[in-house]
């Protein structure tokens, strides 16, 4: 699950204007980070209680990953060269 969060944060870093990085990441973490910490366990618990099966509960969470995959595949982005002075990190090639 950590890899999907890393991928979404990387994509957000590529799409965020440099002058608004702090604002966008604050909104991202405040909205999606906190919401996923609540919604995931809530859905897991509800499905597990209704189906009396943790396998069914785990498979219900796969729906969220599928939705995320579909949304990520629809995003179009361009690669930023590492030596680009306008990149977010401002890193240069050695």
TrEMBL record:
Cleaved signal peptide residues: none
Transmembrane spans: 21-44, 56-73
Protein name, per record: Major facilitator superfamily (MFS) profile domain-containing protein
Gene3D superfamilies: MFS general substrate transporter like domains (1.20.1250.20)
Lineage: Bacteria, Pseudomonadati, Chlorobiota, Chlorobiia, Chlorobiales
Subcellular location, record wording: Endomembrane system
PANTHER family in the record: AUTOPHAGY-RELATED PROTEIN 22
Coiled-coil blocks: none
Annotated membrane topology: Multi-pass membrane protein
Entries under InterPro entries matching the protein: Atg22-like, ATG22/LtaA_families, MFS_trans_sf
GO cellular component term of the entry, any: endomembrane system
Top-rank lineage group of the source organism: Bacteria
Origin species: Chlorobium limicola
Keyword annotations of the record: Membrane, Transmembrane, Transmembrane helix, Transport
């Amino acid at each position: 699950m950590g890899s999907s969060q890393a991928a979404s944060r990387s994509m957000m870093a590529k799409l965020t204007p440099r002058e608004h990085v702090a604002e966008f990441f604050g909104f991202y973490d405040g909205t999606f980070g906190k919401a996923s910490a609540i919604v995931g366990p809530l859905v897991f618990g509800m499905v597990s209680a209704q189906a009396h099966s943790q396998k069914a509960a785990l498979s219900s969470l796969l729906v969220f990953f599928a939705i995320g995959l579909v949304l990520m595949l629809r995003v179009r982005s361009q690669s930023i060269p590492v030596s680009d002075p306008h990149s977010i990190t401002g890193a240069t090639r050695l």
